[in-house]
Amino acid sequence: MSTKRGRGVAGNKLKMTLGLPVGAVMNCCDNSGARNLYIISVKGVGARLNRLPAAGVGDMVMATVKKGKPELRKKVMPAVVVRQSKPWRRADGIYLYFEDNAGVIVNAKGEMKGSAITGPVGKEAAELWPRIASNSGVVM
After folding, report:
1. Which of 11, 66, 105, 140 could form a disulfide with 113 if both were Cys (CB 3.0 to 4.6 A apart)?
2. How far apart (Å, rounded) are the C-alpha atoms in residues 22 and 16?
């Protein structure tokens, strides 16, 4: 039996090291007004008994804002991980990691709440989410 790897967006995500488990706090690198995001669940992840779901670059997560504008706090909203500090191996053999964990707030379709992204964005996220790629300055 085959499994679907797509998440309703163009392209296909390769397997990578997952560096952000449920409960992780990451920076919010867009201009929506949020400062950091607390991951409460990961979209499209399978289950294994006693294993925390974890996210990598390009994954959509459900998150809450812990610091930021009061109108954004205390609400559950989707976000996409664009940077992780845990090293992962790409298909061409190189290992890559960023200096922080960061994400951007999106809606259910993948359209960004903010209009700009500060800092670099992982290629995995840019290939899966075209709106993130168009708003990012540097894609690595």
Report:
1. 105
2. 17
Residue keyed to tokens 């797509």: 6
Q: Which domains are assigned to the chain?
A: 20-139 (2.40.150.20)
Contact present, 105 and 79 (Cβ < 8 Å): yes
Burial pattern 68-88, b for ≥16 Cβ within 10 A else e, equals beeebeeeebbbbbbbbeeeb
d(CA 94, CA 79): 26
Q: What pLDDT digit, counting tens, does each position of 52-80 carry?
A: 999 999 999 999 999 999 999 999 999 99
Taking a C-beta distance cutoff of 8 angstroms, is the pair 113, 105 a contact?
yes
CB 84 within 8 A of CB 97: yes
- Say what the pTM is: 0.89
